[in-house]
Amino acid sequence: MKSFLTVSATFLLALHRGNTVYANNDPILYGSTTAHLSNLDPSKYFGTLAEEDRSTYLMWLQESTYTKHTFLPMVTNPDNGAAVLWKVYADGNAATIARNNNNTDLTHIQVAVAVRATGWVGFGISEAGGMLGSDIALWETANPNTVRDSYVIEDFDVPKKDDCQHWTLLRTTTDNDWLIVEMSRPLDTSDPQDHKLVDDSQLLTPTRLIAAWGDSPTVSFHGFQVGKISANIFPLPASGETAGTQADFETLMDEQADGFFEILANNYTIPAQETTYHYICKSFEELQEQYNLPVTEDGILTFIAGGAVLSPKTEQYVHHFIVYGSSNPTPTEETCGQGNMLWGWAPGEEPTALPQNIGIPLFDPNGYFRSIAVEIHYNNPEMLDGLVDSSGFRVYFSIQPREIEAAWLALGDPATLMKGTAIEDGLSEYSFTCASDCSSAALGSQSVTVIGETLHMHKTGVRMTNELIRNGEVANLGAVDVFEFAQQGSFKVQQEGYEIMPGDSFKTTCYYRDGTEFGLSSQQEMCVAFLLYYPAKSIDFGSFGSFPWGCFYGVDFLPVCNEKLEFQSLASVEGLGRKFGTPPSQCTGKDAVAPSSHDNDATPADESVSDSAASIILVFVSFLTVVQMLLLTHYHS
After folding, report:
1. Which CATH class is domain 407-573?
2. How confident is residue 274, by pLDDT bands cut at 50, 70 and 90?
3. Rounded to 5 degrees, what angle do the CA atoms 12, 14, 17 make?
4. How far apart are CA 309 and CA 307, in angstroms?
5. 578-634 confidence digits (pLDDT tens)
6. Is 325 left (phi over 0), alpha (psi -120 to 50) or beta?
7. Which of these, 289, 380, 457, 538, has the minimum number of CB atoms within 10 Å of its CB?
8. Quick count: other Cβ atoms within 10 Å of Cβ 104?
9. What ranges does the record give for the region Disordered, renumbered to this chain (predicted)?
10. Domain 249-403 CATH assignment equals 3.40.50.360
11. CATH code linked to domain 49-244+597-622
């Protein structure tokens, strides 16, 4: 299917700052060709090092045949980090990467990870962007002949060794304070202790990668030597039908957009503390005056694309941000950030455009986006003084409405009418069911297409699922097995688009541990699934009027779209129903290696791996991947 249009660039602007002198700290569009020179090759990584210090890496690079690459920067020093290079190929054809029109012949991935270290390196495929729920490959100089296939569920201290080993060590380079590890594995190991690598070439959600490294001979606490990024792993299909999916974004906007405006922090002094949330609110009148925005006959501008703009000197401190729209045309300091989710950004996510015929109305006098706010999460782990930032969000708009209007379907408890309901200690499950009558009333005889799905809880949420049920069977499952609020805030599901048919029902289930109570604050809990779909639908509720399609708990006067709640306490973590991390029935595939009895008994070296792995990628908890998020009725206290 044709989904969101995503720019091909995969580098952070900060990674290429080493040889650049900035006259000021004016924000630059993240992902623009002028900002981070997306067509630079990986020889530009580690650019601040002296040539003699880079010689080992550059000599290795000249001999490599990898087709894609990215850089995972340290937050404290974005010129240092982990270079990750890879190629996706058909089994037995690593040298010549031939692919068919839909990438279905691709079976394996070969990865190289290069870091400035002398001891060990860990590379992970992360569910949420951090350590929890991640699939990790570990290599140590103390155990140089193997890559340890490991996984993490909820315990930061103990990455567990997979029952079946699927990574194959191909080559290592250890010279001049460099570690370069090359390895391969199947894209789909059919192993629940591994993450399947799906074709993300045309998906809204890229693949989340993490890395950590150190100088001890076995894995140990890494401090700030960690990095993360989101990247499209797969190449574009050979078919030319969707070749424009990774076209130059600025050229596309020159063709499609009538203009843009930005909501910026505007010389905001980042506090000398690790975590800060800063809000910037703008009414249409303020934006119109600042940018001389056109005033259309109906007052509406159509959102067609968005992207981050980052201050070069401080962008490594921008952890993520969320863009809200509000039906309040003049938000105050107290109400800033209260409203519906419009967009979001985290490092690695490029400027993104809706499909050419789809848009979202802004500044509709009767709509949900009469004013816009940006919530920026700053991460200043060294608690530095004097950091001044002007980062923010750029909105591209068209004057003319698009053929199709996109909208958000909210499920679960989007109105937070569970507010004040206590969540008991231990593990608990709350399931909200939206009956089939709701989709029948909204859709009539027409189906709609979902192009994005986001699952939202707060700090005590541990797992969440959203089931689309058709004729008694689960037709689509959106799930996050290990929810981590510190990383995501909300979790965007990596999946292809799907259809909602009249008569479909939904079951949205949230799992909590030692919960607080339901409410609007981040210190309380929510349970909401948001589906971005088209074309937009509404439901006529007679004397109550017509409302955008949604399904709400506790709205008894709207019985057609009223969620039903089921609750149960869970006796153990097995009741969470997680798939990731469960033991495989057997080791399958020619690449799979079952641990030997020697491995299970653990030699002292193996014990060192297990014990010292207690701290692997610990600091990942402070690095979150907030992806472009969908509708969210979320008030901050």
Report:
1. mainly beta
2. confident
3. 130
4. 7
5. 999 999 999 987 677 776 544 433 333 343 333 333 333 333 333 323 323 333 333
6. beta
7. 289
8. 11
9. 583-606
10. no
11. 2.60.40.1210
